[in-house]
Amino acid sequence: MIRTPRVRSRRRFESLETRCVLSVTLGDLTAAGISQRVVDYIDTSTYESQILGDDTLANTLIGLRSTQTAPQDATVLDSVADLAQITAGTVANPNVYLIQGDLTLTNTIAVPSNVHIYVDGSLFRQGSFVAPGGVHSVENTGTNADAIFRLNGSDNVKLIGVNDALLHSTPNLDVNSPHTTAVFIGGGSHNVEVDGFEMAYVWNGVAAHPFNIRDVTITNNYIHDTLDRGIWSLGTTNLRAAHNFVENTGIDSLDWDAFTNDAIGYENVSIGAGRFAGFVEEGTEDSYFIRGLAMIADFGNPNRGFMLGWADNGSSQNFVSNNPNPSEWTEHNYFIDNVVFTEGNVPQSGGDYFAKENAGKGPTYFWANRGFGAGQSTNFFFDAEWLTFLPTAGGRNNAVNAVQLLADLDAEFNQVTGIVLSAPLVSVPDGAPIGSPVGVVTPLNADVAALTFEIVAGNPGGAFAIDESGVLTVAGPIAFATQSSYTLTVEATDGSEVGSTEVLVTVVSPFATVKRLFDHDFAAPVFSNAADLRGQQGWTAQNGWSVIDASGFGYATSSSTAFQGVTNNTIGRADAGETLRVEIDFDIEVTQDTTSDQFRFGVTTLDASGNFVPAVGNNGGSFLSAKVRYAAGDGGLELFPEEDSGTAISLPGALIGIDRGAGDNQTDPLRATWEATKSETSGQWDVTLAVENLATGQRLGEQAVTVDDDGVYDASTGLFAGVRTLQNASQSVFRIDRFAYQTIDPGSAIAGDYNADGTVNAADYTIWRDAFGQTGESLPADGDRDGEVDLDDHRVWAENYGQVAAASAALGRSTAAPTAAAEASGSVVTTPATNTPIPSATPVAFARTVDAATGSAFPSSVTPEPAAVVATARDASLLLLSPDQLADESPEDIAFASEYAGEAGAPTSAVDEAFGLSPLVLRQAERLG
């Protein structure tokens, strides 16, 4: 058995202020198979540098990128029928098997004693376990637990994933859909190793349950999107879990549960835990969470609860009442050198660390832990000790030397047997000249000066070269039209050890043609005749549409029972592959609970006589349009991407600000973004509708539909955008604050899309930030093409923030369910998942305004903020960093920021130190008021 490579990191015995000694890249996350949503989250985090610089993340990614290989004499099993060959070995000679290929299972693989199983491929099992009452209502445990691998009293077992072998179940998080657990270790099992798997959409990742389970090691697994727990220990002794990356669990990332003794979680990463990142309770004793990294993020798991960090949850009353041995309490557990990052207001998050006041709870020890962005729970410190340093003698009977314990674990889990290289994500402009720098490949665990680098694959025509320092440069012709990306395999050697990594190089095409036809804020007195829209600012309208002046602001509004339309006279056109985009910021005051009130918006065209037929803006149908209508019951809305087809986006009143019980019948300001892309297929359009709540910043939903419309328009007429009311029987009030119309030629990247992924977002800010100050030709972040990456290029990015050229493919392995054909053939077919960002133009802030004459309240827009104002809460810190702020930064501020970047500067107190309240954070808070 060989695992390559395994790496010793630098030991972390330094003070808290200098803990971050390594720095991985976002590319390293991608190379380790971590999802794009995690990459995006870290990329836009306020604490990006601290997270990427943390040893736990670095060592965990190194573990995920390593692999064990099966012995050459392993018995190969490559069909479901072959699995019946798995039989117990002997103590002296365990049976060794290699499962190859992508298999769909109908039954659990029961693993007997003295068996080592390697998996190179994927195992899918839909499973049969459901919990209609919710994840807490029933447990998938016992000798008949539903699982892919199940051990019932089995000894000396290894389950090893080769090259991130995939164990997966039904690709959703619905507790009413059947799922399975990836690995279930039953009572009486001893000496078990689980290593190197990706586990996705399973009930539990690894569950060891219940009792008389000893000597279990769970390492180097990527466990994500579980309905219940990531790793669950109940009734185990001497369990070790290290270098596991656990993401978006329904309940806990790591759970040391009832009667667990001597369990150690070391250098695990938890992000998006639905309840606890890691916790102890109900009789757990002498167990540890050490150097864990937790990011409290909400990824929308429907089974999540309150979302917390590292916790001693004590003992429940049920446990106390039914405990046969009252001397076994939750006591003498340790939380050492952990860190928690909380970004913004995570729903129901209650703190970083706490020790709950529960019956039967003994001492807990919290040593050298930190938290950023949240704070300790109000229940914290019940029978608990908080120290800001690592004691050499402490805990039960002063028997724990924390410094020595960390050194021993470092020696156990961070072994040196290879070279690990970083994997930068880089881009190069179309036509970049020979010698242009591209990126740098650096080692995480070796001296770069002692290495020799070589590109060994993925470099047709010698397009790139790498020098003795790991610097990649352009060495041949680069043309977007010929090849839009390269995956370079780079090796480095010191003459003995060899390390390799893959570098994804994206070729940046010329900027796209994005034509903003108009972007109207209906503000009076710009519309000189506020009573009628006809003939003003390019609008044609029937009676019933007007602009209401609200102290200098305005709305186009209609409450007529007739079919009232308004159309702009600006012409747009779309050839195959091009996109029409309409954005509408609106609100509705619902007067009755009815489904008859509705309106449409989209595009229309002219006939040979110059009439709008069909027309979204006047009487009749429409060329292409979306539909908004009321949903009976709670006063919510339904939005359809095409007026007579497609699945609706259902928005209950609670999501859009309507509360009938409180007498509030008015929606929050909403933004609907509708896009129609003309297909290569004649008469076919790909239509997408996305909705967001501008008051809360929440994305409310998105739907897509293919529309067949053989309507044609000639070059002289084009397409016109508009909106019309229809069937407004109750005379509810439609108010439009802003109406925008664009055409997009996706043949190349959008201005500001510095990484050429089709979306102008926070990732492009990172490209600009890292290239700031560079000069030369064809720089990726040179948005205005003046030969220098400067503040003007930040403005290009900010002004185009939110623009989308095409759907962006989500990185990472698909966990789609097998097709019928795949199931029939015994293989699993996986397809890439996609993530289509909601496009967004200049955000508009809204406020409630009371009319002094009438006393009525209605929303009114204020002057739009610059495009660098927040488009989403997650990217707030980046967009608020405006060019003017950068330009006006004082020398004192620059020096202060530089000092903080090196983690210098003493915290104001021990508590501030523990929770990351640095002078810079406090100073920023003062500036923001």
Automatic annotation (TrEMBL):
Phylogenetic placement of the source organism: Bacteria, Pseudomonadati, Planctomycetota, Planctomycetia, Pirellulales
Protein name per the record: Cadherin domain protein
Cellular compartments per GO CC: plasma membrane
Alphabetical keyword list: Membrane, Transmembrane, Transmembrane helix
UniProt cross-references to SUPFAM superfamilies, sorted A to Z: Cadherin-like, Pectin lyase-like, Type I dockerin domain
Pfam families noted in UniProt: Cadherin
GO biological process, one term: homophilic cell adhesion via plasma membrane adhesion molecules
Positions of the Cadherin domain: 420-527
GO MF terms held by the record: calcium ion binding
